[in-house]
Specification:
This protein has 301 residues and is α/β, with parallel strands linked by helices. The protein has three domains: 84 residues, Arc Repressor Mutant, subunit A; 94 residues, 3-Layer(aba) Sandwich (D-Maltodextrin-Binding Protein, domain 2); 104 residues, Periplasmic binding protein-like II (D-Maltodextrin-Binding Protein, domain 2). It is built from ten helices and eleven strands. The strands form three sheets. Strands 3, 4, 5, 6, 9, 10 and 11 form a seven-stranded mixed sheet that branches. A two-stranded antiparallel ribbon has the order 1-2. β7, α7 and β8 form a beta-alpha-beta unit. α2 packs across α3. The chain is elongated and about 75 Å long. It comes from Rhizobium phaseoli. InterPro entries: LysR_HTH_N, LysR_subst-bd, WH-like_DNA-bd_sf, WH_DNA-bd_sf. GO terms for molecular function: DNA-binding transcription factor activity; sequence-specific DNA binding. Belongs to the LysR transcriptional regulatory family.
């Protein structure tokens, strides 16, 4: 979208200016914007002429932002974010006309909840879906940047950037093969798993620290049989009898077809999952329908 202010500065010039500051160079900005570097340079020069300010110092063929550049960005960022939302809403309308919707979510939910929701949507609406996965941080970035129309994640999320609908509350559980000795327990504690091999998420995740520290607090060094970096990578190892896993109840219910069992694990944590979208975005008919079916699918797990 290109419009003009009373000074002759265009929205496009400001968007390119913002991307140069974010990317740190004209070359990187050009790559992100999918235009040529000379085009970026030309727009920056025109912007400086229009505002009559030196926004960058030229050093060794590099643009070094001045303090005035950052001041200008702060003053126009709110307006640019509004333009971004409008452009993404228009893109969503085009997508709906084209019959497509993009959903970002942890891959583990593609085992049951998301396929059931999409099946329900497609009974009355022939939408095609693009599924994007990744960490919770990456999922939030995909929705914020418009690469995904909707997201599934857990709180906290930045309420200044997103709106959401509560989907499910989950608690820590211990996952194991059917008939395992732990099935006799109503609640499993660290003392109960001292002699068990663990299939555990990697150390950079908070859940890993909680699980491992619970054992080390009792003077036991855990037997880590397998470490994984994304939920759903654990289920095959648990099903094969390699070890047990400490996950949360919503994820455990995604594994129902594997015939595994799980019990509450204490001490544990509570997780609040949501379906979310950009704050201020008008949901299309397909988006609203998808949100409703996702909420129903998670409630049924």
């Amino acid at each position: 979208m290109v419009g003009k202010t009373v000074t002759g500065v265009t929205i496009r010039q400001l968007q390119i200016f913002r991307e140069v500051l974010r990317a740190g160079s004209e070359r990187h900005a050009a790559k992100i914007l999918k235009i040529t570097q000379p085009a970026v340079s030309q727009q920056i020069r025109q912007l400086e002429l229009e505002v009559d300010l030196a926004l960058f110092a030229r050093e060794n063929n590099r643009l070094v932002p001045t303090d005035r550049a950052w001041d200008l960005l702060r003053s126009v960022e709110g307006a640019l974010q509004s333009v971004d939302r409008i452009e993404r809403s228009m893109a969503a309308l085009r997508n709906e006309e084209a019959g497509s919707l993009s959903l970002a979510a942890p891959g583990v939910f593609c085992l049951n909840a998301i396929p059931r929701a999409i099946q329900a949507v497609r009974k009355s609406n022939p939408l095609s879906f693009q599924i994007r996965s990744g960490s919770h941080q990456l999922i939030a970035e995909q929705v914020l940047n418009g690469r995904a129309d909707l997201g599934v994640s857990r709180l906290p999320l930045d309420e200044r950037a997103f709106e959401w609908a509560p989907a499910a509350t989950a608690r820590n559980v211990c996952l194991f093969q059917a008939g395992h000795r732990l099935a006799a327990k109503e609640v499993i504690t660290p003392e109960d798993i001292i002699d068990e091999a663990l299939v555990d998420i990697e150390p950079q995740f908070a859940a890993h620290q909680m699980n491992i520290n619970a054992l080390r607090y009792r003077g036991v060094e855990p037997d880590l049989a397998v470490e994984y970096d994304a939920n759903s990578h654990d289920v095959g190892f648990v099903a094969a009898g390699v070890g047990i896993s400490i996950i949360n109840s919503l994820i455990a219910r995604e594994y129902r077809q594997f015939g595994l069992e799980f019990r509450p694990f204490e001490p544990g944590a509570i997780y609040h999952y949501v379906v979310f979208w950009q704050r201020g975005r008008q949901l299309t008919i397909g988006m609203r329908q998808t949100v409703d079916e996702l909420l129903g699918a998670f409630a049924a797990t």
